[in-house]
């Protein structure tokens, strides 16, 4: 995919406010983002509560395993972030994670079920509708857009969008993995097969492929969205639209291919998703490398240039 050349250096390190970037009384977007984020966290618990009550032991094990996975992925994201020395309020990343694990999972699950019901009434195969990738990526990207709207001054480079998107994706995949583990337990009981084996297989396979799935889907799409916003501010809207379109196309194509019926219960069938994951990791590595080069070889820009980090809100 196309990677923008953005010569201006990011702004100097900013202070680390705790709540102000997300919750500002005078910021209309705050009144939309914060209540929806909290409502999403409550809604996903309420929506999945019956399956949790049905298998409390599986739920505890799955939540514990995915909490560890999420912490490791966030640590990896922190370690590879080229903009980390410039500072970023932790509350923005935390809100991104909660949005991904709450509102994204709830809305995606609810809307996908409604579409599957409509497809069944129309005698269509739900697996051929392919609505899940579009819905999931749209809801994740909506969260990134809201976070950018609240903390615009922190979007100094498209990589800021990558970090926010990846954080949303980490929240999404960890909670989704828990729901898949609970579903695997229910299906194992119905099929009279060992529950432990089914749950372990579900958690291991999905956790092993976690780096190259939802975290990078949303990270690459978030990169494109931030590139559009940054480049538009610098008078390069056409370039920004091209980058965003390339990023979104890459994300949707990867997600659509991932959701194909590979039959992950067979070890050999794990190869196609693994190839997709590796390809996404390579793309992310290129984006990160280009970001580091922009930081190391900045080109001076006029202090009053529109959209430059110095004048970013």
Explain the overall architecture.
It is built from ten helices and no strands. Helix 6 (158-190) packs antiparallel against helix 8 (214-233). It has 313 residues and is mainly alpha-helical.
Please write the string of helix (H) and strand (E) elements. Answer: HHHHHHHHHH
Q: How many helical elements?
A: 10
Please bin the fraction of helical residues: over 70%
Find the structural class using helix and strand composition: mainly alpha
* Parts with pLDDT < 50 across at least 5 consecutive residues: 9-13, 15-20, 299-313
Features:
disordered C terminus; mainly alpha; 313 residues; 10 helices
Structure summary:
The protein has 313 residues and is mainly α.
Write the layout of secondary structure elements.
Layout lengths: L27 H27 L1 H25 L9 H32 L4 H4 L1 H20 L7 H33 L4 H14 L5 H20 L3 H22 L12 H26 L17
Helix pairs in contact: 1-3, 1-5, 2-6, 3-5, 3-6, 5-6, 5-8, 5-9, 6-7, 6-8, 8-9, 8-10
């Amino acid at each position: 995919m196309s990677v923008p050349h953005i010569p201006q250096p990011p702004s100097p390190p900013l202070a680390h406010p705790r709540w102000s970037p997300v919750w500002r009384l005078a910021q209309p977007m705050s009144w939309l983002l914060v209540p929806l984020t909290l409502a999403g966290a409550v809604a996903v618990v309420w929506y999945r509560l019956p399956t949790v009550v049905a298998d409390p032991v599986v739920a505890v094990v799955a939540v514990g395993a995915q909490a560890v996975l999420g912490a490791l992925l966030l640590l990896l994201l922190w370690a590879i972030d080229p903009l980390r020395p410039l500072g970023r309020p932790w509350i923005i990343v935390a809100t991104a994670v909660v949005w991904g694990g709450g509102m994204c999972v709830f809305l995606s699950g609810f809307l996908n079920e409604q579409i599957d019901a409509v497809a069944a009434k129309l005698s269509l195969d739900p697996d051929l509708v392919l609505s899940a990738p579009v819905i999931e990526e749209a809801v994740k990207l909506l969260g990134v857009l809201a976070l950018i709207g609240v903390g615009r001054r922190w979007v100094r480079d498209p990589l800021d969008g990558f970090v926010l998107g990846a954080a949303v994706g980490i929240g999404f995949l960890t909670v989704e993995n828990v729901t898949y583990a609970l579903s695997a337990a229910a299906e194992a009981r119905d099929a009279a097969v060992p529950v432990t084996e089914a749950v372990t297989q579900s958690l291991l396979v999905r956790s092993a492929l976690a780096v190259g799935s939802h975290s990078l889907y949303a990270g690459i799409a978030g990169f494109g969205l931030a590139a559009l916003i940054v480049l538009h501010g610098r008078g390069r809207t056409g370039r920004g639209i091209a980058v965003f379109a390339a990023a979104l196309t890459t994300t949707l194509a990867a997600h659509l291919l991932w959701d194909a019926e590979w039959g992950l219960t067979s070890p050999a069938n794990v190869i196609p998703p693994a190839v997709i994951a590796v390809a996404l990791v390579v793309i992310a590595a290129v984006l990160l490398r280009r970001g580091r080069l922009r930081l190391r070889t900045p080109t001076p820009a006029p202090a009053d240039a529109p959209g430059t980090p110095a004048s970013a809100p």
